[in-house]
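Researcher: I'm preparing a figure for a lab meeting and need a structural model of a single chain. I don't have an experimental structure, so a prediction will have to do for now. The sequence is pasted below. Please return the structure as tokens so I can convert it later.
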Amino acid sequence: MPRDDTVPMITRDNSEEGHLSQNCDDTHTRRTAGEKPLEEGKQYHIFLSYSSSDRHYVLSLKKHLEDLGLKCMMSDNDFTPGWPIMQNIESFMKICQKILFVVSTNFLEKTYCDMEVNMAHAYAADHHMNDYMIVLLRNDCELPLKLKYKTYIDGISTELNDIANKVEDAFIRQDVMPPNTQHDVMENIRSGQVILTKNPEQQLSRLCCNPSYQFNDLTEIELNKLKSSSIEVGIVM
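Model: Understood. Here is the structure written out token by token.
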């Protein structure tokens, strides 16, 4: 993977070392705990998604999260060499309980970061998880439509240990959305909101993880509504 492109970050298991941060100069209260239990079939608590340009910041945050018992995943360490990047992303999302997006100006410029956001929305929709994604705003930048609907953690003027505590609070929150058994609601998997209700003519084969639907009777207003919500719309002539 190119070093200047996005990298969802992940981390190796340091739980057997039982380490706590050696830097105790923080004036803020710091929580410490043993490693939290993992759900069945999961190997990590959090998939860290970030731009490689923010790597040092994320490594420091990872250390704070590990001190709280949250096992994080870094692509630098854990992605399988030789696999396509998309396959690595999809495979590791399946074994992480949640994903944390460290959004920055650098993050918004990276192609792979955008792919991870799209794939995370698809995974959350497929598994009926409203709380799968956690958003951390690293610096003063505009959140994309795909993430703007989420209540984010403000990391601009907040100490790392306080950010880690907020990530822990978001991690332990449970919010499961009811499954759609009617198959007649088209959801905007990029923003998590229902934009319109239509009966599709058919569901097409999945492209990269995102479901595709064919509609034969969309009006111009409905098309514009989809496009304004950052949904890719293809016109078949």
